[in-house]
Predict the 3D structure of the following.
Amino acid sequence: MSFNTTNYSLYLPAVNDTYAEYLLRDVPKGRTFPSDLKVSDLAFWDRKNKLFYYPYVLHSIGQFAAGKQIDNALTRTGRTDKYLFGDSGGFQIGNGNLKGFKGLYAGMEAQDAIDVWDSAYDVKKWIVGWLDTYTNYAMTIDMPLWATRPKHTESPFHKCSYKQLTDMTVDNLKFIELHMKGQTKWLNVVQGLDEQSKQDWWDATNFFRKGGWAIGSGAGPRGGLAQMLHTFLMMKHDDAFTGGNDWLHTLGKSEMRWAIMLTTIQQCIQKENPKFRISYDTASPFQQGGRYEVPVITPTISKNIEDWRVREDESFLIQSHAFVGSTERFPYNSPLGNQLQLGHLNVQDYVLGKRQFDTLSNMLLINHNVWVYLDAFQRANDAAFGTDANKLVPDLYLRCMDIIREAFERKDWRKYITQNQQILDEFHPTEYK
């Protein structure tokens, strides 16, 4: 099947470094593998692969050591074949664990952490240079406000104030303006843990308008549906979605229910700017297929809220010594899954104490999982915006979609969101309390 990449909000699979690098290899000699396929066919962003084509992907520079020359299956694919969204590594910087970057450590005084980052010219130049060279869209370098929260005491920026982190982000934006080459569109990251910190951040940073926006922490889905809706309308009030700023990316959520909320918001904004698009990302299919070595299964959509999520099948042990050399079919549907045998995954003949999977087994599972996620979001959107929405979509979700539409029509949208806070929180409350 082909995915609807025109009418709905877009999921960006967050391709990790292992997957992108492994796809440059050949099948190890003597290893079983689906007939007529090559490892490179797992590059779903390559229009020539034999499985499925989906050109929208995210790749984070934060996975790599500072200064490294990055060479993988994503960087070798031309700009016209895919839409590569680059994450600037704000998460790793905020945690103080960007590889190859020394000087940041837990417990630092605020000014010491600020001074270290201020002097990190080479690191910032490397980030901006790589993003400008390889990506179609790139996140700006934000200094995350979540570093101040009690559970993030290990962050070197934990003792910084909201204002200090905001001021550092403003300096980063000015750095990008000075060094960018104009080869990518920059998505200015909007943050906030509550309405006030978000408004302060927005007032300080929204001068940077180079193609679009990204929203994270309390400004995005993690802030809850009410807070995220507030973010969009605050930005709309300041004409954020005009003048070529046609894209907004929401960081770190990939759930079917959020997909339809984001599509609803996209449709509201498209009434004034038909070019406007919303995207969202997670690394979930890569984590599940790589770290946890489990496949996910296609959901059956119904009015039951529990059906609106991508699940793992806990009833079937996919990795087993019993499947080494097996020609039994892989039991889950996907373009790759329909060609897989369990013996293509279980290739290491160890009885006790060791895995039957190798790294290529993980790559196969990941490819299957990516397709299932894409298919699930397609199904969710088809259900929510089709003629049978009342039969397939939970009443809570339909009500929230109506609230979103009405909020975009209201001059008193702040009051309207407050009046509907309870039902919006029932969908998803803020994670920042």
Observations:
- The mean pLDDT is 95.
- The longest strand covers residues 185-190.
- The beta strands are 10-13, 56-60, 83-87, 137-139, 185-190, 211-215, 247-250, 277-282, 296-297, 311-312.
